[in-house]
Amino acid sequence: xxxxxxxxxxxxxxxxxxxxxxxxxxxxxxxxxxxxxxxxxxxxxxxxxxxxxxxxxxxxxxxxxxxxxxxxxxxxxxxxxxxxxxxxxxxxxxxxxxx
Length: 99
Fold this sequence. Notes:
By secondary structure, the chain is mainly alpha-helical. Helix content is 87%, strand content 0%. It folds into 2 domains: 1-38; 48-99, no CATH class.
């Protein structure tokens, strides 16, 4: 699993840099859209934890959905467990969404 995370952690920035260079050097439109999508997807992945936590706190979800969300947010949970500053920041952010 660590190897997979390492590969994704190297592949996504490389893909982003490649698409930015390609967009700057050429007139290919799809690379510009891909660069924007890659730049926006990272912050959205982190910021959507708050609304999802609020929905889960207010409405019970089935087991299969809980398992899917646990799998989807596992990399973020791993980072929050291993980096105390990030963990406290995420706890504060989720606390803003849950009354």
